Inverse folding.
C-alpha cells in the first residue's frame, strides 16, 4: 500500500516535472511556431538568478517565484527584439539561431560562474509514508506545475488578452486586420514563455547541481514533449507529459533510471511515427 | 555528366588537391587530418540537407555508429580491411532502415528533426550506460562512459603489421574526401540526383510526376549515413579511442553549424565551414580568455541573421557581381574611347 502510494507519487511528480519544463517552450511554439532551442539555457539562467539572489539574502520563495521569471523575462525581451523578430515564419532558421544563442549563453555562463557546480538546499524537509522516505520538495513541484497549467488555461480562456492571443495564433492576418498589433502580441508571448522557463529553472534550482551546461539536459525532453503534444498548448503538454512520465517511471521502477530515460525516447519515436502531428493533432482537437 | 559540371568538378578537385598538399606547411599534420575528417562529415550533412532537403539533427549518430562498428570489429578481427568496410556498411544499413521508417511514415521538417535528435540521444544514453563486463560484443567491451580505447588502427590492406604513418594517413583522408566529393558530384548529375533536387524543391510536384519520393529520400539518407560512417571510421583510427561523446548533441550541433556557416546549398561550403570552424575551435581551445562555445554561438547567430545562405554562396555571388561590374565598366570604357 505504502509502495503503491510512493509509486503513484513518483509518476505524478515526473509528469509534473515534464509539464513544468515544457510549459514555456509550448507557449512559444503553440502561439508562434517558433522553437526556442535556448529554452534549457533560459532555465539555467533562472536557476542562477535564484541561487544568486538567495545568496544575497532574498527569501527563497521570492527568488524562485518572482526573481527568476523576472530576470529571464527580461532576457527573453532582449532576445526577441534583437533576434527572434527578424526570423518569424522561418522555423528552421529560428531553431538554428536559438541553438547559437544556447551555445552563446553556455559560454557566457561558463565565463561568469566558472565550470563548477553550485546549488542550494530544498526549503522543504522530507517526510515518511510508512517505511519510505518522501522528498517533500517533490510535492511543491507538483503544486507549482498544476498552478502554472491552471493559470495558463485561465489566461487563455477567460481573459480578453488570452482571446486576442488565441485569435492571433489562428489567423494572424485577421487579427491584424481587426487592429491588433501582432508583432506586439508575439513579443509579449515570447516574454511570457521565457518567464515560464525562468520559473521552471528557479523551482528546479534546489534539485539539480547547477552547472552552465545544465540546460542541455532539459531541452531534449522539453522539445520532445512539446512536439509530441502537438498544436494545442495545454492539452498537448499535459497529454504528452502524462504518456512520457508514465512510461519513464514504469521502466525506471522495473529496471533502472537509464532504461527509463531510453524508454521515454523510444516512446517518443513510436508516438511521432504513429501520430506525426502530435497527440493533439488526432485527439482533443480544438482544445487549448 | 554535362560539360560545365565536369569542368567545375575537376576544377574543385585540382584546387582542393593543391590546397591539401600545401596545408601541412601551415597546420600541424595531426590536427589537419582531423579537420579533413570533419570536412568529410560535413559533406554528408551537406548532401542530404542541401540537396535532399532533409534536415537531420542526428548525423552524429551515423558518425558514432561508424566509429564503434570499426572499433568493435577491429578488436575482434585484427586486420582492418573488413572493419573498415563494416564502419561504412553498418551506418548505411542503419540509416536505410531508420530512413525507411521515417520517410515511409511521411515525417518531415520539425518532426524529422525531433526523431533524429532523439535517436542520437538514445545512442548517447545507451553507450554511456554500457560500463561493466556484461556489455561485450565478441572480445570488445563497450566501456560505457570511457568508450573503447586501444583497438588496431587502420593498416595496409592484407597485412595487419603494416601500420600507416601520419603522412600516409593524412593522404588517405584527403583521398577519401576528394573521392567522396567526386562521387557526390557524379551522383547529383545523374537522374537520381536531379530528382532528389526536384523533391527538395517541391515534394508534391515530384510525386505527381510519378516518382516514389519516400524511396528516394530513404536512399539519399542512407548514402549520407554511409559517408558519415566513413568519417567516423577514419576518426576512430585517428583518435585511437571511441567514446559516447561522438553521439552527443554538441557533435550533431556542430555538424549543422558547419553547413550553415559554410553554405548548405553547396558541397564545398560545408567542407570549408567544417575545417575553418574546427580550426578556430582548436585555436580558441588554446587560450582561456574567451570561452569557445561563446564564439561558436555568436558565429552561428550572426550567420543565420546576416548571411542566411552561408559564406561560400555569398562570396561566390559577390565575386560574380564584381566581375560583371568590372566587365560592364570595361565595355563602357571601350565604347567611350571609340
Amino acid at each position: 500500500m505504502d509502495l503503491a502510494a510512493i509509486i503513484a507519487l513518483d509518476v505524478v511528480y515526473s509528469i509534473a516535472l515534464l509539464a513544468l519544463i515544457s510549459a514555456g517552450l509550448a507557449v512559444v511554439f503553440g502561439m508562434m511556431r517558433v522553437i526556442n532551442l535556448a529554452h534549457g539555457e533560459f532555465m539555467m539562467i533562472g536557476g542562477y538568478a535564484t541561487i544568486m539572489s538567495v545568496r544575497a539574502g532574498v527569501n527563497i520563495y521570492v527568488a524562485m517565484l518572482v526573481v527568476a521569471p523576472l530576470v529571464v523575462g527580461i532576457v527573453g525581451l532582449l532576445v526577441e527584439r534583437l533576434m527572434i523578430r527578424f526570423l518569424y515564419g522561418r522555423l528552421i532558421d529560428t531553431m538554428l539561431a536559438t541553438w547559437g544563442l544556447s551555445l552563446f549563453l553556455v559560454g557566457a555562463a561558463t565565463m561568469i560562474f566558472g565550470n563548477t557546480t553550485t546549488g542550494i538546499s530544498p526549503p522543504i524537509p522530507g517526510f515518511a509514508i510508512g517505511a519510505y522516505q518522501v522528498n517533500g520538495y517533490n510535492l511543491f513541484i507538483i503544486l507549482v506545475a498544476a498552478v502554472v497549467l491552471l493559470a495558463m488555461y485561465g489566461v487563455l480562456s477567460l481573459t480578453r488578452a488570452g482571446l486576442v492571443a488565441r485569435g492571433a495564433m489562428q489567423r494572424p492576418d485577421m487579427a491584424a486586420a481587426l487592429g491588433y498589433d501582432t508583432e506586439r502580441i508575439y513579443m509579449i508571448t515570447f516574454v511570457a514563455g521565457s518567464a515560464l522557463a525562468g520559473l521552471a529553472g528557479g523551482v528546479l534550482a534546489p534539485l539539480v547541481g547547477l552547472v552552465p551546461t545544465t540546460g542541455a539536459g532539459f531541452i531534449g525532453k522539453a522539445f520532445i514533449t512539446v512536439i509530441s503534444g502537438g498544436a494545442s498548448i495545454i492539452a498537448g503538454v499535459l497529454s504528452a507529459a502524462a504518456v512520457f512520465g508514465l512510461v519513464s517511471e514504469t521502466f525506471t521502477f522495473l529496471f533502472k533510471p537509464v532504461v527509463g530515460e531510453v524508454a521515454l525516447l523510444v516512446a517518443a519515436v513510436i508516438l511521432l511515427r504513429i501520430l506525426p502531428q502530435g497527440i493533439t493533432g488526432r485527439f482533443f482537437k480544438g482544445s487549448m | 555528366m554535362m560539360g560545365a559540371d565536369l569542368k567545375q568538378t575537376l576544377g574543385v578537385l585540382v584546387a582542393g588537391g593543391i590546397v591539401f598538399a600545401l596545408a601541412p606547411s601551415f597546420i600541424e599534420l595531426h590536427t589537419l587530418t582531423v579537420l579533413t575528417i570533419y570536412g568529410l562529415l560535413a559533406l554528408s550533412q551537406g548532401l542530404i540537407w542541401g540537396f535532399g532537403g532533409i534536415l537531420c539533427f542526428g548525423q552524429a549518430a551515423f558518425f558514432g555508429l561508424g566509429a564503434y562498428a570499426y572499433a568493435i570489429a577491429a578488436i575482434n578481427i585484427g586486420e582492418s580491411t573488413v572493419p573498415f568496410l563494416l564502419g561504412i556498411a553498418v551506418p548505411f544499413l542503419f540509416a536505410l532502415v531508420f530512413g525507411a521508417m521515417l520517410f515511409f511514415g511521411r515525417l518531415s521538417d520539425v518532426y524529422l528533426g525531433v526523431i533524429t535528435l532523439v535517436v542520437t540521444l538514445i545512442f548517447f544514453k545507451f553507450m554511456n550506460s554500457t560500463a561493466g563486463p556484461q556489455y561485450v560484443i565478441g572480445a570488445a567491451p563497450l566501456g560505457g562512459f570511457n568508450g573503447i580505447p586501444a583497438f588496431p588502427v587502420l593498416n595496409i590492406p592484407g597485412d595487419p603489421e603494416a601500420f600507416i604513418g601520419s603522412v600516409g594517413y593524412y593522404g588517405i583522408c584527403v583521398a577519401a574526401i576528394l573521392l567522396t566529393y567526386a562521387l557526390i558530384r557524379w551522383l547529383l548529375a545523374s537522374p537520381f540526383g536531379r530528382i532528389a533536387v526536384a523533391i527538395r524543391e517541391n515534394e508534391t510536384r515530384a510525386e505527381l510526376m510519378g516518382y516514389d519520393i519516400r524511396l528516394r529520400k530513404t536512399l539519399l539518407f542512407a548514402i549520407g549515413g554511409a559517408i558519415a560512417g566513413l568519417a567516423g571510421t577514419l576518426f576512430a583510427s585517428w583518435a585511437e579511442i571511441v567514446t559516447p561523446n561522438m553521439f552527443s548533441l554538441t557533435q550533431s550541433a556542430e555538424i549543422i553549424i558547419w553547413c550553415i556557416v559554410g553554405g548548405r546549398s553547396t558541397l564545398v561550403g560545408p567542407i570549408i565551414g567544417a575545417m575553418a570552424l574546427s580550426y578556430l575551435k582548436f585555436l580558441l581551445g588554446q587560450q582561456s580568455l574567451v570561452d569557445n562555445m561563446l564564439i561558436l554561438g555568436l558565429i552561428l547567430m550572426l550567420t543565420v541573421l546576416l548571411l542566411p545562405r552561408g559564406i561560400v554562396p555569398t562570396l561566390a555571388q559577390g565575386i560574380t557581381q564584381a566581375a560583371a561590374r568590372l566587365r560592364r565598366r570595361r565595355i563602357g570604357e571601350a565604347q567611350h574611347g571609340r
User: Anything to note?
Assistant: The mean pLDDT of chain A is 85.
